[in-house]
Amino acid sequence: MPDDSRGTGPGQRALVATALVAAVVVGVAGYTLGRTSACCTSPPATTSAEAGFARDMQAHHIQGVEMAMIIRDRTDDEAVRLLGYDIATTQAHQAGQLYGWLAEWGLGQLGSEPPMMWMRRPGRSGAVAADTGEDMSMGALMLGMATSAQMAELSAGSGVEAERLFLDLMIAHHQGALEMAEAVLDRSDHEGTRTFANAVLTSQQSEIDLMTEMLAERGE
User: Fold this and answer.
1) Which one of 50, 54, 135, 192 counts the least CB within 10 Å of its CB?
2) Span 102-146, pLDDT tens digits
3) pTM above 0.70?
4) How far is CA 220 from CA 46, 67, 77, 101, in A?
C-alpha cells in the first residue's frame, strides 16, 4: 500500500504546480497553432463558442491534471500510475494550447459569462446544453467536474479504494469533456478548434473504455 503521508503534502502540491506551470509554458506553442488556424479570418469573439470552449476545457483539464497527480501518489498499481501520468501530461499540454489560443486571439483567460453559457446557445443542430435547473453562476461546476468533497476524498484515499474512486471520477470527467467537444463541433467552423475537439473525442473515449475495464477488474 502507498504511504498515506503522500498526496496532500508539499511534494504533491509541487507536482501539481509543476504540471500546471508546464501547461502555461506549452501555451506558447499554442500561439503558433492559433495563428495558423486563424490567419485568414477574424479571431473568435469573447462570447463565441470557440472562446467559451477554450476557457471551459482549460479549467476542466486543469482539474484532470490534479486528479491524475493525486492518484499517482495514492497507489502502487503500475497500470493506474501510468494512466495517471498519461492523463496529466496530455491534459497539461492541451491546457497550455488552449491558453495560447486565447492569448493569440486577444481574449482574457476568464470570460464575463458563467461556465458553459456558450453551450446554452443553439448549435447548427438546434441542440443546447440540458437545463439542470441549477444556477449557472460563475462558480458553477462544469460537466463532469469533481466537487471539492470528492477531491478531498480522493486525496485521503489509498490503494484499491483510491483507484476505484479515481476511475469513477475520471470516467465522469471524461464524459463531460466529450459533451463539451461535441457541443463545440456543433457550433464552430474554426479549423483548429474542430481538430482539437475531434482529438478529445477520440482519445478520451479510448481512455473511458480502458478505465471501465480497470474498474470492472476492481469489483465495480
Assistant:
1) 135
2) 999 999 999 989 999 999 998 998 877 655 444 445 445 788 999
3) yes
4) 43, 20, 17, 40
Q: Which amino acid is at 158?
A: S
Distance CA 152, CA 75 (A): 16
Residues 196 and 95 sit within 8 Å (Cβ to Cβ): no
Q: How is residue 7 written as a grid cell?
A: 498526496
CA distances from 44 to 35, 41, 83, 164 (A): 12, 9, 34, 40
Between CA 143 and CA 57 the distance in angstroms is 10
| CA–CA separation, 128 and 113 (whole Å) | 16
Exposure class string for 106-120: b at 16+ Cβ within 10 A, else e: ebeeebebbbbbbbe
Domain locations along the chain: 10-119+142-217
Q: Which CATH class is domain 10-119+142-217?
A: mainly alpha
